[in-house]
């Protein structure tokens, strides 16, 4: 104890003596000498306390980095040393640019696959209605089943179900209103009104996703819709059909496509929100399909009284209608006259419809609802051309509309205009993508 006290006293004495000696010395001048700075290197400053003292070289810190009295400067310095710097040749920028091009290529390929499957879906739907022409409602319900869960996790299954319920409600209401309007409108009139689907998607994506589009993209979408109208509905008396049907059924069909546009944007919101909840993990497509189909079936079941009246089937006869539809689908029983081609054609349609919907969802996931709508729109005139070919079970092939070629040219120009990027824009703005999460 005595030893410790002695050390403490001795240390205090020495410290006080040092302070006194420092105070006794007169203040010395300090001179700063800045050496010539080499280009690209920080300036070197020499600190000279006096003329006799040896100069102390001090390297200046660049203006981008400064010390705020904490240890973050050393951490930032270590991170800078670990971070790979771009070489004189700009390899880092080349890799980033290559990644953007790869992503754009992926979206273009996915859009082409979706358009091809869209053509197959339209053609197979027409073929499937040949044996089930008396049971279209049965075919519509058959296409909602068959989705199965893929490789999913508990986190994916624990996502909120309210958005999927909204999707189911939107899809069921869109189907119901679309069926009611289509029963009173001609095919060309429905094709013309279906182009409002793209307009609703753009509007909803701007409102709910905060997405902004360039003038060339908006004008390109208008040209695509106009090209479809010219190629499909030209010379078919669509304007006269609108006058005969009345304004109510036309507005009801527009409402149907508005609900479909809201449905696709809602699915895009689900993918964006799930990426945040799953900490960057991607939500499986089959989860969206399964939950959406489940709620759609529930909502349609609640609307069966209205739907049965729409198709001219009394509600009490609905069980026998579904039973006869199942017999025609399987092509088994006595009441199978006119069911030739079943069950092959309906099964092919269900499989094609599943592939098309999955491809459409994937395109929404990696790009946007508007891009998926453009890919789906392109399939319309291509499907019209396929119906002019001698397909089995269709009988006499139909003739091309008078403005098919002109409308197709307008459609292609619209797609090119939509994908065109001005020189002042970056390459990643060619196709609008989901907001970063």
Automatic annotation (TrEMBL):
Pfam families: CRT-like. The chain crosses the membrane at residues 164-186, 192-211, 218-239, 245-262, 283-307, 344-361, 368-387, 393-420. Residues 1-18 have a biased composition (Polar residues). It is found in: Membrane. GO terms for cellular component: membrane. The keyword Phosphoprotein does not apply. It is a multi-pass membrane protein. GO terms for molecular function: transmembrane transporter activity. The keyword Cell inner membrane does not apply. Residues 1-24, 74-97 are annotated as: Disordered. Belongs to the CRT-like transporter family. This is EamA domain-containing protein. InterPro entries: CRT-like, EmrE-like. Keywords: Membrane, Transmembrane, Transmembrane helix, Transport. GO terms for biological process: glutathione transport.
């Amino acid at each position: 104890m005595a030893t410790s006290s002695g050390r403490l006293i001795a240390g205090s004495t020495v410290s006080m003596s040092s302070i006194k000696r420092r105070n006794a010395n007169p203040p010395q001048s300090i001179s700063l000498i800045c050496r010539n700075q080499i280009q690209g290197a920080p300036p070197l400053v020499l600190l000279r306390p006096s003329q006799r003292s040896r100069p102390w070289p001090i390297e200046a810190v660049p203006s981008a980095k400064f010390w705020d009295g904490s240890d973050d400067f050393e951490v930032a310095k270590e991170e800078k040393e670990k971070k790979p710097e771009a070489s004189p040749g700009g390899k880092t920028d080349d890799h980033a640019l290559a990644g953007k091009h790869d992503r754009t290529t992926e979206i273009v390929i996915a859009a082409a696959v979706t358009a091809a499957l869209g053509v197959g879906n339209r053609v197979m739907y027409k073929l499937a209605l040949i044996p089930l022409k008396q049971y279209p409602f049965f075919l519509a319900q058959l296409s909602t089943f068959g989705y199965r869960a893929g490789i999913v996790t508990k986190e994916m299954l624990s996502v909120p179900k309210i958005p999927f319920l909204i999707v189911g409600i939107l899809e069921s209401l869109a189907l119901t209103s679309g069926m009611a309007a289509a029963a009173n409108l001609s095919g060309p009139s429905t094709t013309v009104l279906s182009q409002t689907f793209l307009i609703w998607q753009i509007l909803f994506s701007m409102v709910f996703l905060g997405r902004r589009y360039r003038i060339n993209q908006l004008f390109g979408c208008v040209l695509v819709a106009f090209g479809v109208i010219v190629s499909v509905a030209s010379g078919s008396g669509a304007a006269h059909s609108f006058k005969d049907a009345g304004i109510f059924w036309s507005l009801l069909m527009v409402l149907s496509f508005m609900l479909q546009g809201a449905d696709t944007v809602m699915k895009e919101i689900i993918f964006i929100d799930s990426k945040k909840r799953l900490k960057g993990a991607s939500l499986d497509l089959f989860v969206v399909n399964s939950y959406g189909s489940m709620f759609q079936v529930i909502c349609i079941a609640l609307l069966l009284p209205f739907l049965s009246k729409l198709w001219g089937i009394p509600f009490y006869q609905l069980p026998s209608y579904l039973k006869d539809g199942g017999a025609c689908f399987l092509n088994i029983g006595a009441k199978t006259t006119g069911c030739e081609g079943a069950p092959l054609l309906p099964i092919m349609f269900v499989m094609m419809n599943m592939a098309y919907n999955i491809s459409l969802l994937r395109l929404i996931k990696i790009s946007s609802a508007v891009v998926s709508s453009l890919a789906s729109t392109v399939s319309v005139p291509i499907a019209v051309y396929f119906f002019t070919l001698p397909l089995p079970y269709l009988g006499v092939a139909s003739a091309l509309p008078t403005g098919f070629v002109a409308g197709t040219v307008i459609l292609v120009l619209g797609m090119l205009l939509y994908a065109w990027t001005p020189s002042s824009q970056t390459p990643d703005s060619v196709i609008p993508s989901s907001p970063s999460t």
